[in-house]
Amino acid sequence: MTYPSFHPPVRTLMGPGPSDINPRVLAAMSRPIIGHLDPAFVGMMDQMKVLLQYAFQTENELTLPVSAPGSAGMETCFANLVEPGDEVVVCINGVFGMRMKENVIRCGGTPIVVEEEWGQPVDPQKLENTLAAHPDARLVAFVHAETSTGVCSDVKTLSQVAHARNCLVIVDTVTGLGGSEVRVDDWGVDAIYSGTQKCLSCTPGLSPVSFSPRAVERIRNRKHPVQSWFLDLNLIMGYWGSGNAKRAYHHTAPINALYALHECLVLLREEGLEEAWARHRHHHEALKAGLEAMGLSLLVDEPHRLPQLNAVKVPEGVDEAAVRTQLLERYGLEIGAGLGPLAGKIWRIGLMGFGCNQRNVLLCLHALEAVLTEMNAPIERGHAIRAAQRVYGETGHRDEV
């Protein structure tokens, strides 16, 4: 039996990830492969570290992309910093806080949970009270940008609370990096991980991470070996060195995927980090105006909303899965479903990276209104596009990426 080559359909990706990719990034992936210890490739690795330091706003020497997706970035942080018997405070306000807890357990640690309602940010006072009740805790872990709900927590304040109790801080910013303000050094973050397929608009499969000198010291002084050989930073540091230091072979890096990430980071630098944050906020405001004009509402209170991940409440009586199916089949438009207790109750509409633009906002509003109208959903018709265009008319924001 013979099989044809696979040619995927053209989609507009406005879900929780992956996001649309700039043609420059796709072109970068097609460049000739070279060895993962080739001097030219090593030079690109050094550039990538500097570009990632810019994206994270850090001077941490140990800043690099893990050769696996964001979940492996999470595991890298926990496997290297959690030892058997460690008490770790984990703040849970969505799916990915739950995964942090699971990582603690698998590393032999004891998770101490701070629970929040899904859609609410982590409460610093709850964290303070928990740490006061558990003085032996060594680490605090929480999600900056919770992909399952679209809520953003106050990393700086939570880090200050943790450091006052002599705890290191692990932060998930898989959906945050490149789309929302992230300032690792200013906020006092000790370990942070992200993913390439969200606001960086790269292919899935890489996870940028960064570790503070305090975190590196703890990793180097562990009493137990890191449980994962592949993710042991004591070994990986030998490959992701700096300058003219001889690189020690650790694994065959995903070379062409790293070409793509390098190009994404070059694009981010060309646009400017703060300009990228402003662009995501701008198009979020237009999308929000259109959704509200349609009579739809967002799950998260305005001060805590992520501009790049919009959790939209499903109108009463509407089959949310049927809406998503119609959007995909008729408009080639992908949006995401709710997870956990929010399954069937929300849509997750992403405005990430290259896909965060006026065309996508207007397409989404038009398609969503058309599908909901045909389903006789309780919405306001004929106002969404005009509401979004008013936002664009008022600002005159440049849309290029």
Automatic annotation (TrEMBL):
Residues the record lists as binding substrate: 348
Taxonomic source organism: Ectothiorhodospira haloalkaliphila
Stored PANTHER family: ALANINE--GLYOXYLATE AMINOTRANSFERASE (PTHR21152:SF40), AMINOTRANSFERASE CLASS V (PTHR21152)
Residue span(s) of domain Aminotransferase class V: 46-338
Cofactor: pyridoxal 5'-phosphate
Keyword DNA damage attributed: no
Residue intervals passing through the bilayer: none
Keywords linked to the UniProt accession: Aminotransferase, Pyridoxal phosphate, Transferase
Similarity section: Belongs to the class-V pyridoxal-phosphate-dependent aminotransferase family.
Listed PROSITE patterns: AA_TRANSFER_CLASS_5
Pfam families, per the entry: Aminotran_5
Endoplasmic reticulum found in the keyword field: no
Molecular-function annotations in GO: alanine-glyoxylate transaminase activity; L-serine-pyruvate transaminase activity
GO biological process, one term: glycine biosynthetic process, by transamination of glyoxylate
Residues carrying N6-(pyridoxal phosphate)lysine: 198
Name of the protein this chain belongs to: Alanine--glyoxylate aminotransferase
